Every structure is written in structure tokens, then in C-alpha cells.
Amino acid sequence: MSLKPIAALTLVSAILAIASAPWALDIMWLNVVFKPLTTALIITRAWPRGADTPATRHAVLVGLVLSLLGDIALLWPQAGFLPGLVAFLLAHIAYIVAFTREHRFLAQPAALTGYALVAAAILALLWPSIPPGLRLPVACYVLALTVMSAQTAVVGLASKGDQRRRGRLLMLGGALFMTSDALLATNRFAFALPAANLWILGTYWAAQWCIASWLKPTAADANVAAAAAG
Predict the structure, then answer these.
(1) Which of 91, 99, 164, 220 could form a Cys-Cys staple with 151, CB 3.0–4.6 A?
(2) What sign does the CA torsion over 115, 121, 122, 123 have?
(3) At 191, phi and psi to the nearest 5?
(4) 0.90 cut: is pTM over it?
């Protein structure tokens, strides 16, 4: 399947999942169906890509599948929160493995410092509101998220030639993932955000799309993209 149908289906699925919220259509079964489906469609986007780097492709796909499991767990916001957190923690570890296959681990100390300062500030603000039993898992998750996001900057800044655009897209994905999780944590532990799932899920799926799109496209997709650009 070429890029345009997958992109269109992903967008429609994401809109239906977001519109399930009480402030919109208030139809919860839409969330149950279309939230996992949106991530599954992003997996479909990634699946044929990255054939030239099979180990990297495998790690990205593992991260996406773990994210899908996390999405399913979080359909139950209370009982599923900790399993979902663990699934996403493992997803970030898989992404770190993928992003370090060809680029040295944390080769941009400034990026790590920047992300660490942002993460630490958010965690410090929310810490009093996080239940004691969740503090250690949340801190471990934040650490993995911070390292993953910083490593996307390593890849983005090191990418040259025909990899430059995909590298910059990946770097954007890291920033969007950090944004999404900061919004999610604020909404859960501090105060309710207006239209929360619009901002949380919108940035989350945009981040996952950027990560999936980082893998090198097949020759056929590359030709289609070149023709469209021309």
C-alpha cells in the first residue's frame, strides 16, 4: 500500500479516536476501536520500510508493537496505567536500540542536557501529585523517554545527504513524544486539560508517524515521493 492511503486512513482513524471523548461525540466504543487501529496503521506504515537495515527495522517495529500494547492497556485508565507505562518504557528502550545502531549513543550532550532539564522540571512539578507507588515506575519511564528523545536529536543532527530529511523528521518525533507525555502526565496528575486527548493523542501519533517514517522507504515508495516532489 502506498503512502497516501495509509496516511489518509491513519488520519481518519486518529480523528475518530479523538472524537470519542466526552467533549466531542462522547461515543466510547470509537476509542476502543480506533485508538489501537491508529497505531496499527502506523505499524503498517513502518512494516515495508528499512529493509536495508534489518536490525534497526526490527527494533523500531518492536517499539511500535509495544506501543500498541500500551495503547490497549490504557483503554482502562486506572487498572491499565501501570501495564501501559511498562509497555511504553520497553518501547522507548527498543527505540533507543534502533537509534543507536548507526549513531553513537548520546553523541550530542547538549541535546541530552536540554531534554533532561525539561523532564526534570516537569517531574519536579508533578512529583507531589504522583501516588507514592507510582513514583519509581514514572521516574524510570521519564529517564527512558529523555534518553530516547535525546538520541533522536543525535540521529537528526548527524544525518547527511538523502538521510537528512528523515533524520530531521525523527528529531521532531522525539520532541513530539516528550510533549505528548508531558501533557498526559499533567492531565493525569495535576489538572484536567481542556480537550486533553486532542493534544495528547495528536502529538503522540504524530511522533509515532515520524519514527515510522525515519526508516528508509522501499524503492517504489521513494520513486512515488520523488515523482510527487517533481
Answers:
(1) 99
(2) positive
(3) -155, 155
(4) yes
